[in-house]
Specification:
With about 300 residues, the chain is mostly helical. It has a single domain, classed as Na+/H+ antiporter like fold (Up-down Bundle). It is about 80% helix and about 0% strand. The protein is globular, with a radius of gyration of 18 Å. The protein starts with a helix and ends with a helix.
């Protein structure tokens, strides 16, 4: 039973199933816990990276450049192209512009540990991408939506909550007396934190999926293309170029996971409930993608490069 309840795939699937069963009432009650859960799992993931990784300017610039390329060229390009072809309605397209403008999902950093990716690349790249997104995200919405919907202070708040504070706490956890204990509990805590986030995302949006299934299906096609399909294409391309598996894992996550919850919240506050649908649907599809990646852990971690 202990092995079952600490298995990443089982725990994430349980969170998804409970979200569908218990629905929005319970999910909304637990919604305030999602930010602390994300902060916890990012803190635990960042505790694996030593401070020396940030002391090499070339490494920092290279990781940031790769993260920006993966998130704002590959991922955003795929989202906008697919959205233009499949859901061209103005409000829905605006919702997808907000998803494309969002920085990479900070939670992908934590999942990088389970897949044994390059945690240093993911951490440095994510921090750099979030800092850059303070400028990039508002410009993105201005160019593609005709309005600067994302404000720099919104991105800064997300940066502070999900990157700066967890990164600072992670330095404490790297104390030589604490680190062995942290490593023993890290993966189960990350899995259960992820499960809580998935539960809330699925539960809050459950009624939308049942009420407008055809609309949701069209929106989901865009989300599927920009996660499952793009993830596989990036994996295939990087294999062809001979990129090491650990680095490949990190770049796949950066290319396929966006902070869609942030995009949905901005759309709901500044545009309309309809414009918030792409971010909400993307959040659920990303949860499914994480489940699917969790099922690939054995294959990916034992892969012979």
């Amino acid at each position: 039973m202990i092995r079952l309840l600490t298995n990443t795939t089982v725990v994430l699937a349980l969170g998804f199933a409970l979200g569908l069963i218990l629905g929005p009432t319970v999910a909304r009650a637990l919604e305030p816990l999602t930010l602390p859960a994300l902060g916890l799992l990012i803190t635990l993931a960042a505790s694996e990276v030593s401070k020396h990784g940030f002391r090499k300017p070339r490494r920092v610039l290279a990781a940031t450049g790769l993260a920006l390329l993966a998130s704002y060229v590959v991922s955003s390009g795929a989202i906008l192209l697919a959205a233009r072809l499949i859901t061209p309605e103005p409000q829905l397209y605006t919702g997808y512009v907000l998803v494309a403008a969002a920085p990479p999902a900070a939670s992908a950093l934590a999942f990088c540990i389970s897949l044994q990716g390059d945690v240093a690349l993911s951490l440095i790249g994510t921090v750099g991408a979030y800092l850059a997104s303070i400028i990039i995200a508002p410009l993105f919405t201005l160019v593609f939506a005709g309005s600067g919907l994302v404000r720099p202070q919104q991105v800064f708040t997300t940066l502070l909550t999900l990157i700066v504070i967890p990164l600072a706490i992670s330095r404490i956890l790297r104390n030589r007396r604490l680190l062995p204990a942290v490593r023993r509990v890290r993966e189960p805590l990350i899995a259960w934190s992820f499960a809580l986030v998935i539960f809330v995302v699925v539960g809050v949006n459950r009624d939308v999926f049942f009420r407008e299934p055809l609309l949701v299906l069209r929106i989901a096609v865009v989300a599927l293309l920009s996660t499952f399909v793009i993830g596989d294409l990036v994996d295939w391309g990087l294999r062809r170029w001979g990129v090491h598996r650990r680095r490949r894992v990190s770049l796949i996550l950066l290319s396929s996971l966006k902070n869609s919850g942030f995009a949905a919240a901005v759309a709901l506050a500044l545009v309309s409930q309809l414009a918030a649908l792409p971010g909400a649907v993307m959040s659920v599809v990303e949860a499914l993608y994480i489940l699917w990646l969790g099922a690939q852990v054995g294959r990916m971690t034992h892969e012979d490069d």
